[in-house]
Amino acid sequence: MSATTATPAPPAVAKRQGAGRLKDGRARSPFSMVVMLLLALLWTLPTVGLLVTSLRTRDAAATSGWWEAIWKGGWTVDNYARVIDQADLGNAFLNGILVAVPATIIPVMFAAFAAYAFTFMDFRGKDFLFIIIVAVMVVPLQSALAPLLDLLGPRGLGISGTYLAVWLLHTGFGMPLCIYVLRNYMASLPFSVVESARIDGCSNFQIFWKLIAPMAMPAMAAFATLQFLWVWNDLLIAKLFLSDSNTTVIVKLQQLLGTQGQGAELLTAGAFISIVLPMVVFFVLQNFLVRGMTSGAVKG
């Protein structure tokens, strides 16, 4: 008897067989691909309309829709030049960076410490304290503005109008959600790694920086991206707790809009100028997130 062996398929045939499958071998779903394409188009459509409007004159944008711009005309780049001249975007960008960077690093750093304590340390009232932190997320930000204005104003600490006031506010409002997200992520990490490190004589400080922080880097990078975008696009806190000399780019753009709607064409141009830095930060942290996922993986 002669044993029969399976003949491998030619490379061209194997390529055609794998064309309709994902990397894990599952078949591609045409319905899912169509749905994702439609969702991407719906998500991109308003941004495209905003871009087209920013490149049109005020009269053209008022008399015809952006989808008619191809044959109606009215193209111009003066809106971008006027925004740069009138909004003082150079100082506004610098102020936005001075606000957003510390207001991103501080809450993520302290929330990571707290999440480690809630996950890998035992102390009295841990569960009750965590419930209180989660419950704080339900409190609307707007309801706390009036007492905070008194606390940080001249009758209180006297730091209203400074960067410190905005850093404290964004840290306080961002930490509860960050603690909740990081704590849930750290709870999925193997506890045996922490136990082994403690047996080897490592302190909590060493365990956090050498083991938990690298493994939790994907979640920390993801939340840092969101926190930076939230702080950069913030209008309410920056408008109330910063002065005109150190206000952010979002407030400067809002001030371009008149009471009768004049200056709307400048807002569309300013919107695209203001998203340059967030886009750069997003792509940088996206690469950092991927590196954190690969370097922080537990290899058995």
DSSP E strands, number: 0
Based on helices, strands and strand pairing, what is the structural class? mainly alpha
Principal-axes geometry comes out as globular
Can you tell me the residue ranges where pLDDT is under 50 for at least 5 consecutive residues? 13-17, 294-300
Q: Largest sheet at a glance?
A: none
Q: Could you describe the 3D structure shown?
A:
With 300 residues, the chain is mainly alpha-helical. Helices cover 70% and strands 0% of the residues. The protein has helices at 11-18, 30-54, 58-63, 69-72, 78-86, 89-120, 126-136, 145-152, 163-187, 191-199, 204-215, 217-232, 236-241, 249-255, 264-274, 276-295. Helix 6 (89-120) packs antiparallel against helix 12 (217-232) and helix 9 (163-187) runs antiparallel to helix 12. Mean pLDDT is 82; it is low at 13-17 and 294-300.
Q: Which labels suit this protein?
A:
globular; mainly alpha; 300 residues; single chain; 16 helices
What secondary-structure arrangement, pairings included, does this model have?
Elements: H1 11-18, H2 30-54, H3 58-63, H4 69-72, H5 78-86, H6 89-120, H7 126-136, H8 145-152, H9 163-187, H10 191-199, H11 204-215, H12 217-232, H13 236-241, H14 249-255, H15 264-274, H16 276-295
Helix pairs in contact: 2-15, 5-15, 6-9, 6-12, 7-9, 9-12, 10-11, 12-16, 14-15
Sum this structure up briefly.
The chain is an all-alpha fold and 300 residues long. It has 16 helices and no strands.
